[in-house]
Amino acid sequence: MKKVTTTFRGNAACLGRLILFGLTLSTCLGSSNQAEWERRRLRTPMHKVELTQKGYIQFLRWELPVPEIREFTFCLWLKSNDLTHPHSIFSYSKNERERLVRAWIAPHGKSIHLKIGGTQVFETPSDILENRWYHVCQSWENKTGRYGLWINGNLWTHGSSQKTLGHVIPSGGDIVLGQEYTDFDKGLEDGIEGSVLGFNLLLASAFDPLAISHAREASYDSNALPSASSYARSSLVARIPTQMSQRGVVFVPVYHHRFRRHVNDRPAGRSEEGSRRIDLGSERAGFDPSRLKKEPLGLQLVKLSYVRCEIGRGSPFIGGPLMLISWSRTPVRVFGGAVLKNVNSDCGNF
Predict the structure, then answer these.
(1) β-pairing, 174-178 with 59-62?
(2) Nearest one of 91, 77, 58, 75 to 176, comparing CA atoms
(3) Rounded-to-integer distance, Cα 321 and Cα 109, Å
(4) What is the DSSP letter of 259?
(5) Cβ–Cβ < 8 Å for 94, 87
(6) Across the beta sheet with 98-105, what order do the strands follow?
(7) pTM score
(8) Cβ–Cβ contacts within 10 Å for residue 5, how many?
(9) What was the pLDDT predicted at 335?
């Protein structure tokens, strides 16, 4: 199957339609000054990418050298129009064959998965629905094999994958969003059918180093992995015993009532009338980004990209060189004719 690709590079028109693709911050603004970037933010809208071609190759592939990876955190906003097939939310492979990292949402949104080096790190039930925006983050580190999954700002599950202890993800591969960069000759019906926004990949975990040093204990302190709206969750779970599966994965079921949140236990993202809007007003009102400086970088990414998604037009200014992929600043190639559209900065209601 032929791969159709479009490459966008920086030029004077980057403040318009092509700002997302292939452009560096200095190319767009003539300056790397963050204050200047923020002053222009209101005049430069955020962008989403629509992946709409059914049964055809269509994805984003970032153009950059990838180092060895010992820990990572990635986040993205996602809305699916059709959940019939698996949705690949992070794929890292080599030579279009060797699968190194795979993260995906199962058909019909029933579960979310992460595999590293062929080892299933976790598989956890979910209830992702079509035509709604979700903010999804995953984090992993190799010192203890610890992992975490956040959905809509809330810690969904965490634990430790014993089989990934000390595992180093090889360098030199290809990072892809939307589909897997493997087996093109077989065709690719699987993949995201919908919209994505704000994909960021940080080479740092969301776990406190002090907490990691105690992660081999038989239980975990949920406060080591707070949600983006910690006031809504911190009292719900104290210490939860791990459960060892036959695959050797330690699975910790953190929240049993799915995407329920603090107002009369309504589903998150709905009003009493059943609206599909996500209301982040209360989180934003009490959220102070300056307080995040002492928290792990990965957790900063989780919180900022959910509550303050507009910062950096979808990519917060954290991590420095550890921010391997920035949604608005890292060159990327588009395969299959994905559609780029302007959106507003109302998080979860783009």
Answers:
(1) antiparallel
(2) 91
(3) 33
(4) T
(5) no
(6) 5-7, 332-335, 59-62, 174-178, 87-94, 98-105, 111-116, 119-125
(7) 0.74
(8) 13
(9) 84
Query: Residue 327: what pLDDT?
Result: 97
What DSSP line would sit under 31-43, residue for residue?
Answer: ---HHHHHHTGGG
Per-residue pLDDT tens over the stretch 274-327: 335 687 877 887 788 888 888 999 999 999 999 999 999 999 999 999 999 999
Average pLDDT over the chain reads 74
For the chain, the 3-state helix, strand and coil shares in percent, each to the nearest 5, are 20, 35, 45
Q: Which residues pair with 104 in a beta bridge?
A: 88, 113
Q: List the structure tokens of 324.
A: 């391997």
Q: What is the pLDDT of residues 183-237, one digit of tens each?
A: 555 545 578 999 999 999 999 999 987 554 444 443 334 344 555 544 233 222 2
Q: Which of 98, 128, 129 is nearest to 113 (CA)?
A: 128
Amino acid at 23: L
Instruction: Summarize pLDDT for 64-107 with one digit per residue, the tens.
Output: 999 999 999 999 999 999 999 899 999 999 887 889 999 999 99
H/E segment holding residue 213: helix 209-213
**How many CA atoms, within 13 angstroms, populate the side-chain half-sphere of residue 146?**
23
Torsion angle of the four alpha carbons 108, 62, 161, 232, in this order, in degrees rounded to the nearest 10: -60
Assess contact for 135 and 129: CB atoms under 8 A: no
| Tokens standing for residue 102 | 């795979």
CA dist 327 and 314 (Å) reads: 6
Q: How many residues does the chain have?
A: 350
CA distance 198 to 217: 35
**Which residues contact residue 2 at a Cβ distance below 8 angstroms, ignoring those fewer than 6 apart?**
57
Q: Any idea what DSSP says for residue 142?
A: T
Where does 230-289 have alpha helices with state H?
281-285
Which of the residue ranges 32-46, 90-104, 117-131, 236-250 would you say has the lowest mean pLDDT?
Answer: 236-250
Q: Which helix (H) or strand (E) holds 219?
A: strand 219-221
Residue 138's contacts (CB-CB under 8 Å, 6 or more residues apart) are 73, 74, 90, 103, 114, 147, 148, 149, 150
